[in-house]
Amino acid sequence: MISISSNLNIMIKAAEKASKSVIRDFGEVEKLQVSKKGPYDFVTKTDKHVEKILIEELSKTKKNYSFLSEEVGKINNKDKENIWIIDPIDGTTNFLHGIPHFAICIALQSEGKIVSGLIFDPIKDEMYYSEKNKGAFLNNERLRVSKKNLLEDCLFSTNHEGVKFSDLNVRYTGCAALDLAYVASGRLDGFFHNKINLWDVAAGALMVEEAGGIVNDLNKFNTNNIDIRASSDAINNKMLIKLKNF
């Protein structure tokens, strides 16, 4: 059994509890697709409800930790050096349209550095997690980035702007967190995206690094305006050359 910290254990339990609501509501969203009202209001309520569960669960044993979340923004508590970074549903548009590709994301930032990260895909029951200097895992199996070294053999993920810019072999999945988790697991070889939020990439960036990959320094950017480049070590320089004007 893999040894994990008490903080990561709290994160896993919080995500598992929140996922019950996500799975239930996702089933309802699929039904709402054919109604006149549509699922928009319903999904907004789900996002906020999941966020509420996560904050409540994470606060039970770490009462003084602060929060940075997509929905409520910054919550400053007594401990401002330890910050839970939350995205209740990354891939909301997928969720909204009944597409089963989204994730619950939690990261812990301590003294300015991401030290723990979790990305949970509740539909596929895939729990990705990592801790600084302890590796990255998927459901207790150690993750390693891809070893491919030819760009033509590689598969990348980005957003619609990246798709338009690049001649790399790319996919646009609509869930940055899972894109990064897939880079960490070797399913994808690289991920690049401009002007993205910290809560979308905090957990995944750590995961890629802990799986042996390379991520640019995210601390140089504002919280809601991050340019990220993440890939295996083998193709990082080649990818950056391709993206030098992006």
Short description:
With about 250 residues, the protein is α+β, with helices and mostly antiparallel strands.
| Biggest beta sheet attributes | 8 strands, mixed
What is the count of β-strands? 13
**Class based on secondary structure composition and strand pairing:** alpha+beta
What Rg, in angstroms, do the CA atoms define? Answer: 17 Å
Q: What is the end-to-end distance?
A: 43 Å
Order of strands in the sheet with most strands: 2-1-3-4-5-6-7-8
Number of domains: 2
The level 1 CATH classification of the largest domain is: Alpha Beta
CATH topology of the largest domain: Fructose-1,6-Bisphosphatase, Chain A, domain 1
Structure, described:
This protein is of the alpha+beta class and about 250 residues long. The protein has seven helices and 13 strands. Strands 2-1-3-4-5-6-7-8 form an eight-stranded mixed β-sheet, with helices on both faces. It has a five-stranded mixed β-sheet with strand order 10-9-11-13-12, with helices on both faces. The longest helix has 27 residues, at about 5-30. The radius of gyration is 17 Å and the shape is globular. The relative contact order is 0.13. The model has no long low-confidence stretch (mean pLDDT about 95).
Annotation keywords:
246 residues, D-Maltodextrin-Binding Protein, domain 2, 5-stranded mixed sheet, 2 domains, alpha+beta, 8-stranded mixed sheet, Fructose-1,6-Bisphosphatase, Chain A, domain 1, 7 helices, globular
